[in-house]
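Key result, reporting period 2: structure in, sequence out.
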């Protein structure tokens, strides 16, 4: 059964504790990365055989394979993915930033250039479940940003990639796809091999080994975030249907045994009803074993005095997904400070965001919603700033710059300005 708590009557450390990813993978991942850096494709092929039972000597998926997968995918699923892709494009196209230039009088020009990164690497999980939705969510913003190359790595169990992943890649405009997963895929993207090119940034979710690998290669390349287990927090008042609330909690619990599902409510009656309903629905899930471990080990129901206190708890937890299941959700939206993505009202299940609505589903976990944001077009851009001064414009401010530099004890800085005024500073 899921654990229940009364806010204010429990040690906050217990109330706000969250699932930790498995430990002890650091050295294993470091060894894999070192192997890839030295042995490249040879090591990748060995790991494919070892972990994915993939004996293929071909790392890259051909254009013919991609087209064949697209043609063999259920036409209705293609239609659904095309519509989802359109929604994602519409939402993310509004995130695109423009360069700007400030042309001041008296010989000064300032500006900022917004440019895409050249090569984006997207990791797409393919273990206990395959996620074509991740392909759309992570590749379409890169395409909108203007990335020249969008490269996917994904495991190929038994040498095969789920055709829906390849079909989604075609829809999203992916450049190249490689059949390799795990920490070794992250290492290949970070350092490059004979076949897989080095990328500028790696994005996408993965297991503990993938997350650790992203952490270890950060600095060699950029990453979106170090993602932990999936999370959902449901804020629900006493008018909510416990059947619906339980179903929404299980939508994340079925991801993996480390996922977290939390209900925060001002109604003890709803809390009890959801606890009973969770047990009933668990028995009907195909992924019961995974979801049950998640609910029993990591799940929580927290009862607070009123909705304002409920929101206080939610902001402290800072969940990946937050459902605001109340009749007037917009009245409370501004009070939500820490959440990766917010789902408003009683008709907006988190699954809507996972697949279809348009906002991104690659989100900050483990409380990092306090300072991280959802994946966006910004993740695939960089900014350079520039300045231009005429001789006369520099002359007007040279003494001020020199004074500032001298205060910091940096004489060469001061001299680099003053020498332009014809002063003998040496």
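The corresponding designed sequence is given below.
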């Amino acid at each position: 059964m899921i654990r229940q708590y009364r806010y204010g009557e429990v040690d906050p450390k217990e109330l706000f504790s969250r699932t930790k990813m498995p430990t002890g993978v650091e050295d294993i991942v470091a060894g894999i990365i070192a192997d890839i850096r030295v042995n490249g494709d040879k090591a990748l092929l060995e790991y494919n055989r070892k972990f994915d039972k993939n004996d293929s000597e071909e790392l890259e998926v051909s254009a013919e394979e991609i087209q064949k997968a697209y043609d063999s995918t259920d036409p209705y699923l293609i239609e659904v993915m095309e519509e989802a892709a359109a929604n994602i494009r519409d939402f993310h196209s509004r995130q695109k930033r423009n360069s700007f230039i400030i042309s001041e009088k008296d010989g000064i020009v300032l500006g900022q250039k917004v440019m895409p990164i050249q090569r984006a690497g997207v990791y797409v999980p393919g273990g206990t479940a395959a996620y074509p939705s991740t392909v759309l969510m992570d590749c379409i913003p890169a395409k909108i940003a203007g990335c020249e190359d969008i490269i996917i790595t994904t495991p190929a169990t038994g040498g095969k990639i789920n055709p829906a992943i390849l079909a989604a890649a075609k829809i999203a405009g992916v450049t190249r796809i490689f059949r390799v997963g795990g920490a070794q895929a992250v290492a290949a993207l970070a350092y490059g091999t004979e076949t897989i090119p080095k990328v500028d940034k790696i994005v996408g979710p993965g297991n503990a080994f993938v997350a650790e690998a992203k952490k270890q290669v950060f600095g060699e390349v950029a990453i979106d975030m170090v993602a932990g287990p999936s999370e959902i927090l449901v804020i629900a008042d006493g008018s909510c249907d416990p059947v619906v609330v339980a179903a929404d909690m299980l939508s994340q619990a079925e991801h993996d045994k480390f996922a977290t599902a939390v209900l925060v409510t001002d109604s003890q009656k709803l809390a009890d009803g959801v606890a009973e309903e969770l047990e009933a629905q668990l028995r009907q899930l195909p992924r019961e074993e995974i979801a049950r471990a998640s609910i029993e080990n990591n799940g929580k129901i927290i009862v607070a005095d009123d909705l304002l206190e409920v929101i206080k708890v939610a902001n402290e937890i800072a969940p990946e997904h937050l459902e605001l299941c109340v009749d007037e959700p917009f009245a409370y939206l501004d009070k939500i400070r820490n959440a990766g993505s917010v789902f408003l009202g009683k008709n907006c299940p988190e699954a809507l965001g996972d697949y279809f609505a348009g906002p991104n589903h690659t989100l900050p976990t483990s409380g990092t919603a306090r300072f991280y944001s959802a994946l966006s077009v910004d993740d695939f851009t960089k900014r350079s700033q520039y300045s231009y001064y005429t001789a006369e414009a520099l002359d007007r401010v040279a003494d001020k710059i020199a004074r500032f530099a001298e205060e910091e004890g940096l004489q060469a800085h001061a001299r680099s300005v003053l020498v332009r005024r014809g002063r003998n500073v040496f």
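Residues 229-371 form a domain with the Rossmann fold fold (CATH 3.40.50.1980). The longest strand covers residues 108-116. This case is discussed further under Risks and Mitigation.
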